[in-house]
Amino acid sequence: MDVERYPHLRPAAMDIARFRELPDLSRHLDDLAEWKEHSVKMEGDELQAKAIWCLEGLVVLHSEFTSAHGSMRSGDVIGAFDRIERILTAAPIIRRHLNDAGGKFGLELIHNTGWDWVTLLDPPYGISHGSIIKRAHCSICQTRVGVLWPCGHIKGEIYGGMLCIQIHKEITVTEVSIVERPASLILTNHRDQMLKGADKFADLARKLPSPYALWVPQLETDLRRHPAYRDAGRNDRCPCGSGRKFKRCCAHGHPNIKHWNISVIDDYSVPNSRRQTVIA
Asked: Where are the extended beta strands (E) located within 144-273?
């Protein structure tokens, strides 16, 4: 979907393409909603309605992303990761319908940065379940649907400017798997890790020159570089929190807590412009 094919949508699209300058994107939402309603009711133009749906989704994603960064800077890691969870759920859906060649609208950048934040959690896993859907309804026509009785609407497609989803009324879970990148991320399982590392998450967010700064987490296992281990005595309690003495736990080079070395790109105009910060 090329959202710039419609002249009246170009101002919003151009503003979104300037996302690194942090423009006020929310000011476009009222106009987009009005145009979407007109394109559906008056013109019957489904492609235009889909384009507007994509733009609305981009505005919401960028707003959530910058708000997540602000929450992280202030130490509200629970609020920040709640927003990141919504971003990681919505971004792949928008990407199915939007032509974001070259990353002009920042969709891939937002998605990848969200996963980088999740990677800093320990462990960065989620639950993926298999289930039997016993009763479901279509969100577009509200009729009951199933494998043998489809309604004609395609799940994940846009109709009248609305996303088609199946509303599950009754399901039976048949299996549960632990995966690194689940389709439905549930970060509530990691709230203890969020709270434990709140200061470190906030410190990293404050050091980023922008919510859209590029940064790469790299796992570091050299305990000499880890501030928590630097002054640990052999008979002290191990900094990893295991309750064991340091000499019987992480002293042999197998740390039980993760030490992240963060590479941050400061200046987009200078190739390989980086500075190093350290977060445990």
From this structure: 144-145, 158-159, 162-163, 166-179, 215-220, 259-265
